[in-house]
Write a sequence for this structure.
């Protein structure tokens, strides 16, 4: 029997279970410290595997389509942050200050890699360009996201670090393992591709560890007393509005600029996505431990909404008659 489209995917259900576990049994004291060390190692392994998976041949194949890549990067690192800044006063009326900042943090993150490429393929888009754009977004985000956080989020909200300290910290924890993975790609690339399904569990386990650790600290600080159910519903509506705006703008802009339908599919899916896989470890590096859970809540909700909406869009694109 086919799984109903409206149901969350298995990983999202596990993610909800982890948040529930952290709410009921948060890690404290020495246990919390142990989880911190474990998550640091898991995140380094996560980015090492991302580096090892990224095929240089795919990157070269998509590099020639520079107009498309520039447009996708503009949507990811200019349009989204601009919308975040313009909507921040509105978010501030309905959400508490931490969630409003979480919405702004969501807007400065890089695009997804795996799901953007998967949806581009489902929608019969330019897959080679999707690989290049999504990968470039992930790499550039390592440098741009902390800079945008320091410019757009109130000074002092970042965990006691300067902008360049934050960049250096991210370079050490994320970029260095990624670069090592790229260096090892010719040696272990085929192994990684062959065991992609198994190694995907490493990605997901890393995210789940960070989420449990972050939400444990947030729950101890009183997360759920500061986010009642009505505010959670308002946050969901805010994520829906943000995604709808970006999907409309990316679609209309790609058509006005004369891109082919295949390129439009790639622009829409690469330019409208935000990465949970990158956002979770970046939040861990950029913000103080009690803040991380609150900062990640908008991203987790937006992530699920974008998956459900883009799955429907990809199917419609895929069924088109050329």
């Amino acid at each position: 029997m086919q799984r109903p489209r409206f149901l969350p995917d298995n990983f999202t259900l596990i993610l909800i279970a982890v948040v529930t576990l952290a709410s009921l049994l948060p890690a404290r004291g020495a246990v919390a410290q142990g989880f911190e060390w474990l998550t640091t190692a898991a995140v380094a392994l996560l980015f090492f595997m991302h580096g090892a998976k990224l095929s240089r041949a795919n990157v070269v194949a998509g590099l020639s389509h520079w107009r498309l890549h520039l447009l996708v990067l503009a949507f990811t690192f200019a349009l989204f942050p601009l919308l975040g800044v313009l909507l921040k006063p509105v978010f501030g009326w309905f959400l508490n200050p931490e969630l409003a900042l979480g919405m702004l943090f969501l807007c400065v993150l890089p695009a997804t890699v795996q799901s953007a490429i998967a949806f581009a393929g489902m929608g019969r888009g330019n897959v080679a360009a999707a690989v290049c754009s999504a990968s470039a977004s992930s790499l550039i985000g390592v440098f741009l996201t902390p800079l945008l956080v320091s410019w757009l989020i109130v000074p002092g909200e970042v965990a006691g670090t300067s902008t360049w300290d934050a960049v250096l910290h991210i370079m050490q924890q994320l970029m260095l393992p990624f670069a090592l993975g790229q260096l090892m790609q010719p040696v272990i690339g085929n192994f990684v591709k062959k065991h992609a399904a198994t190694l995907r569990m490493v990605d997901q386990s890393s995210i789940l560890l960070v989420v449990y650790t972050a939400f444990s600290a947030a729950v101890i600080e009183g997360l759920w007393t500061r986010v009642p159910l009505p505010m959670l519903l308002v946050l969901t509506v805010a994520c829906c509005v943000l995604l709808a705006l970006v999907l409309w703008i990316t679609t209309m802009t790609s058509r006005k600029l004369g891109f082919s339908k295949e390129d439009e599919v790639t622009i829409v899916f690469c330019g409208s996505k935000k990465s949970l896989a990158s956002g979770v470890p970046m939040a861990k590096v950029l913000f103080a431990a009690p803040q991380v859970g609150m900062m990640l809540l908008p991203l987790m909700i937006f992530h699920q909404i974008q998956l459900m909406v883009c799955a429907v869009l990809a199917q419609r694109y895929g069924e088109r008659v050329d």
About this structure: DSSP finds 14 helices and no strands in the chain.
